[in-house]
Inverse folding.
């Protein structure tokens, strides 16, 4: 089965080609069906691969080489796929959640004229992500890495007639490019120092050469981490992700849950051997992750756009994952990627259902009391909120608790700050929930009349994801409950945790009680604050939070504006005076010279003959003296 | 008076000079053309004379070349003059400056 792994990215590629080539000739429904079927086919193959990897007869990673990609001197980079527990798990997440989002999109995008094109992009997105996951070397990963960057640009700017949306797309692309540069430099460092980009050879060399200088590994890991901050929206490159809300809502779900933002986590988990060699980078990763988690959570508290709240919650949850990576608990981070994929896809699709019912309205100040009209959306959304807040019994509890206890084992301060971020998570999620579904309707009469539950193609994925959001956590039971942490055992063949995360049973239970209690408390606070919402203008800190700590404005003044000024300066002097001056100068000189030379062409044939004879005489004279 | 190479030399010099002067001074295209032919043939004469003087047949080879080229040139040149006459009913070279500017 694992030899058939090339089928997994092949199906979305075929779907992309069919939809992409015939996008203006095909009926809309057809495009949706082809797009969804392509992902479903990949999902089936992924399932087969997953169970093969899970079975006992599977030993070590399988490398499937498709063809020689780069062959130059000693350098040889084949285009190969690697199947092991890590990639097979990600395959399931991407194709599974991706398929549900495709199904949801068939209904959500049905009124859009560019629907077939949309599905083409969506398939290309999944294809790139699968390439990123499956690659057996950093180069193949990089191809997918760039591919998802391109697709996010295409999809965020899908409604390209709106200038703000295209600006958001450009922002996402440029920010990603900044990160990509880091990744590229890291890759070149690996290539220069180790002569290979393949994971197996590279990690093998790392293991067999104990004398690899630590400053080298630090530089490589930092470069890779810069790449990860771009793709996975960490400080300082996180601002593109909230703006990426400009795209259609299922796209947000895809970006936030299945594809794109998990790429950074995957890359670091994949390079766990390398990162374990560099504790300093791990510290940086943990600190950046925690800072992002807290910063994004504070911003989310004061946002009024339903999708913006979710976007910042994604940034915050990604911060948690980086915290887990930073303390060396790679498997826990991957576990959180999985549970997060379920409940964040659920929340985004739920918010899409709400926006659909509200006729495009995204401001939660104008919602309220929607629960009566859309019961399925309400219940599934509630499950998502409970999961992300870390309430016991839901998937988020297990993964978030595992992260927090790993942080506690590493450093107590990390733990306390992590709990603070988790408390804020519970608060803003339930603020969102109560404002949207609780209370009474605050919108216009027209909107109230329009409210309805979404069609089955939208509610079914919600229900499936809600179920997954509950049961998804039971594959990673903490040690105090069960000796079999299935996901850790499963991943241990591909990813090796770093450091000791073992806690006393009692301590762990206590930690759990603290975080659960804190989350519960915040839910109650959120309820009491938002039971009778009155939206006065924010002042002081709240205003700062509403304006996202003015980070965008800061970037604007510190980076964007100076670059614009410099560009204007270069345009005026280097471009118009320098380069244009040279080009125009050459033209002017030739023209001036020709103007003078033209006088020789008198049109008098007699004169020409005279010049001819004079020339002849001159040649005679010349040869006469020459021979002398 | 025996005729030696010097006589040939002066004869061809004379012919060449007539050719040059005719080319420079006349305005009739056909006369100019004939003068050019005269120059070519004075050179031919010179070549044959030197060939005889040195007893080397290589120079006569050149004479045939020049005669061939001259024949071709006459064909093209006369054609041009005929066309010119058809257009402007004159073979005066001074009215050919209409292409100026």
């Amino acid at each position: 089965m694992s030899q058939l792994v090339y089928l997994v990215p092949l199906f979305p590629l075929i779907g992309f080609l069919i939809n992409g080539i015939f996008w203006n000739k095909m009926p809309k429904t057809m495009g949706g069906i082809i797009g969804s079927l392509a992902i479903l086919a990949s999902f089936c193959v992924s399932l087969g691969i997953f169970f093969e990897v899970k079975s006992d007869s599977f030993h070590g990673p399988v490398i499937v080489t498709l063809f020689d990609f780069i062959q130059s001197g000693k350098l040889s980079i084949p285009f190969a796929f690697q199947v092991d527990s890590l990639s097979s798990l990600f395959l399931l997440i991407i194709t599974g959640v991706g398929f549900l989002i495709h199904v949801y999109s068939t209904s959500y995008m049905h009124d859009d004229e560019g629907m077939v094109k949309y599905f083409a992009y969506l398939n290309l997105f999944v294809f790139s992500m699968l390439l990123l996951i499956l690659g057996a070397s950093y180069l193949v990963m990089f191809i997918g890495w760039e591919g998802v960057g391109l697709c996010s640009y295409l999809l965020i700017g899908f409604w390209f007639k709106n200038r703000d949306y295209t600006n958001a797309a450009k922002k996402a692309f440029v920010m990603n490019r900044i990160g990509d540069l880091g990744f590229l430099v890291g890759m070149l460092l690996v290539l220069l120092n180790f002569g290979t980009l393949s994971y197996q050879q590279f990690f093998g060399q790392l293991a067999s050469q104990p004398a690899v200088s630590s400053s080298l590994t630090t530089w490589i890991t930092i470069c890779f981490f810069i790449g990860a901050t771009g793709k996975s929206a960490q400080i300082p490159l996180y601002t593109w992700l909230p703006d990426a809300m400009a795209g259609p809502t299922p796209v947000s779900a895809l970006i936030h849950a299945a594809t794109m933002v998990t790429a950074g986590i995957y890359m670091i988990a994949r390079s766990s051997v390398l990162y374990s060699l560099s504790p300093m980078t791990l510290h940086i990763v943990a600190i950046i992750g925690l800072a992002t988690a807290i910063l994004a959570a504070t911003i989310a508290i004061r946002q009024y756009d339903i999708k913006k709240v979710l976007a910042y919650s994604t940034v915050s949850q990604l911060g948690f994952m980086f915290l887990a990576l930073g303390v060396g608990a790679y498997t826990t981070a991957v576990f959180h990627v999985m549970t997060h994929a379920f409940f964040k896809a659920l929340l985004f699709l739920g918010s899409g259902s709400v926006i659909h019912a509200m006729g495009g309205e995204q401001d939660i100040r104008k919602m309220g009391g929607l629960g009566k009209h859309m019961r399925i959306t309400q219940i599934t959304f509630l499950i998502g909120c409970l999961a992300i807040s870390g309430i016991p019994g839901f998937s988020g509890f297990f993964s978030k608790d595992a992260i927090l206890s790993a942080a506690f084992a590493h450093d107590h301060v990390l733990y306390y700050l992590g709990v603070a971020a988790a408390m804020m998570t519970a608060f803003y999620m339930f603020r969102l929930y109560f404002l949207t579904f609780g209370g009474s309707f605050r919108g216009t009469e027209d909107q109230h009349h329009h409210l309805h539950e979404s069609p089955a193609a939208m509610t079914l994925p919600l229900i499936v994801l809600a179920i997954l959001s509950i049961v998804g956590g039971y594959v990673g039971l903490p040690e105090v409950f069960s000796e079999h942490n299935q996901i850790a055992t499963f991943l241990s063949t591909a990813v090796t945790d770093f450091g000791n995360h073992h806690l006393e049973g009692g301590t762990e239970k206590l930690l759990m009680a603290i975080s659960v209690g804190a989350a519960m408390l915040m839910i109650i606070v959120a309820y009491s604050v938002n039971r009778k919402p009155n939206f006065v203008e924010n002042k002081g800190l709240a205003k700062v939070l509403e304006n996202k700590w003015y980070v965008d404005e800061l970037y604007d003044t510190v980076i964007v504006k100076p670059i614009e000024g410099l560009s204007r300066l270069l345009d005026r002097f280097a471009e118009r005076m320098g380069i244009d001056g040279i080009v125009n100068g050459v033209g002017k000189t030739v023209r001036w010279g020709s103007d003078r030379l033209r006088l020789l062409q008198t049109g008098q044939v007699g004169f020409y003959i005279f010049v001819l004879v004079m020339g002849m005489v001159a040649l005679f004279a010349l040869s006469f003296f020459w021979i002398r | 008076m025996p005729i030696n190479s010097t006589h040939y030399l002066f004869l061809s010099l004379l012919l060449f000079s007539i050719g040059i002067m005719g080319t420079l001074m006349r305005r009739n295209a056909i006369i100019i053309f004939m003068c050019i032919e005269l120059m070519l043939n004075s050179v031919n004469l010179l070549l044959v004379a030197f060939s005889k003087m040195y007893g080397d047949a290589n120079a006569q080879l050149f004479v045939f070349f020049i005669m061939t080229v001259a024949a071709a040139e006459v064909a093209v040149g006369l054609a041009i003059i005929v066309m010119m006459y058809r257009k402007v009913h004159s073979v005066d070279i001074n009215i050919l400056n209409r292409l100026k500017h």
Remarks:
- Chain A touches chain B at residues 601-606, 609-610, 613 (CB under 8 Å).
- The first helix of chain A runs from residue 7 to 21.
